[in-house]
């Protein structure tokens, strides 16, 4: 079942990152209070990393029990371990190296020189198995019920490494696939598919900057998910678009309340 998107528009991308970090702290603390642990799916890109940096700078980050948090990734650039362009490398720099996570619960996607070899499809299948092993059997889904899954939105409406019209966005069975020929470098990537994304309780889409205005307008105005992958990203209980004013500048005003701008 799809949940209608809710929109929150912030003054600028710095405030958006700080407010999203505060929101994430609260969600994680609440999930840990009610279920003992929390699971969050991280995104690559400037907005996702901006949020992590804001979280690192927030004094309230100490409210999180970092040892009871599972981290997963929505997508990864298929590059060697430690490559500065890998999403996990950037997340480590922005936040992860500064907090006491349980390394066993940091589920990075495979690297191109990792134990699964340089075949991206084999590496993607291995990540799907890792997700399936962590899923709660009583939920009958092949991935965990992530508490929050974050996605940066690209100017062409891509999310994770689901690009318009490419095979990955059409996938209806597998939860993780290899991507070949992505228009955003590097061309070879691993990504969660839309069915895996939709298993999350909450999906948050992050869009800041003028170059995201058209993408937000298209995805929020009834576009199809094959042409506009962001339109197909929704959570089971909540779908939240977190925007700055520039990214919201082309949205019809009735889509979001005046008060949030
Ligand atoms: O690895 C990646 O490149 C991504 O995960 C990608 O989907 C990203 O999130 C968007 O392109 C938005 O990126 P920005 O926030 O930098 O605009």
Automatic annotation (TrEMBL):
SUPFAM superfamilies: NagB/RpiA/CoA transferase-like
Lineage, broadest ranks: Bacteria, Bacillati, Actinomycetota, Actinomycetes, Kitasatosporales
CDD domains linked: 6PGL
GO molecular function, one term: 6-phosphogluconolactonase activity
Domain of life of the native organism: Bacteria
Keyword Nucleotide-binding recorded: no
Domain Glucosamine/galactosamine-6-phosphate isomerase: 12-241
Gene for this chain: pgl
Pfam families linked: Glucosamine_iso
Name under which the protein is recorded: 6-phosphogluconolactonase
Role summary: Hydrolysis of 6-phosphogluconolactone to 6-phosphogluconate.
Entry's family note: Belongs to the glucosamine/galactosamine-6-phosphate isomerase family. 6-phosphogluconolactonase subfamily.
Catalytic reactions of this protein: 6-phospho-D-glucono-1,5-lactone + H2O = 6-phospho-D-gluconate + H(+)
Listed EC numbers: 3.1.1.31
């Amino acid at each position: 079942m799809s949940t209608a998107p809710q929109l929150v528009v912030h003054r600028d991308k710095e405030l958006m990152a700080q407010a999203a970090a505060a929101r994430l702290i609260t969600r994680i603390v609440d999930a840990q209070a009610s279920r003992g642990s929390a699971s969050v799916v991280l995104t690559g890109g400037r907005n996702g990393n901006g949020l992590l940096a804001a979280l690192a700078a927030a004094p309230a980050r100490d409210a999180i029990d970092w040892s009871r948090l599972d981290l997963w990734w929505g997508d990864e650039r298929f590059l060697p371990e430690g490559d500065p362009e890998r999403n996990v490398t950037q997340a480590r720099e922005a936040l992860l190296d500064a907090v006491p996570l349980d390394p066993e619960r940091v589920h990075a996607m495979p690297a191109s020189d990792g134990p699964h070899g340089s075949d991206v499809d084999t590496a993607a299948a291995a990540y799907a198995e890792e997700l399936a092993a962590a899923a709660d059997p009583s939920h009958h889904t092949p991935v965990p019920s992530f508490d929050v899954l974050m996605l940066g939105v690209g100017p062409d409406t891509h999310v994770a490494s689901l690009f318009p019209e490419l095979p990955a966005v059409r996938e209806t069975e597998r939860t993780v696939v290899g991507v070949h020929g992505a228009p955003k470098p590097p061309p070879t990537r691993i990504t969660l598919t839309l069915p895996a994304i939709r298993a999350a309780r909450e999906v948050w889409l992050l869009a800041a900057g003028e170059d995201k205005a058209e993408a937000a307008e298209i995805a929020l105005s009834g576009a199809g998910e094959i042409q506009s992958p962001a339109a197909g990203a929704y959570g089971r209980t909540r779908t939240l678009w977190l925007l700055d004013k520039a990214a919201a500048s082309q949205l019809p005003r009735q889509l979001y309340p005046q008060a949030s701008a």
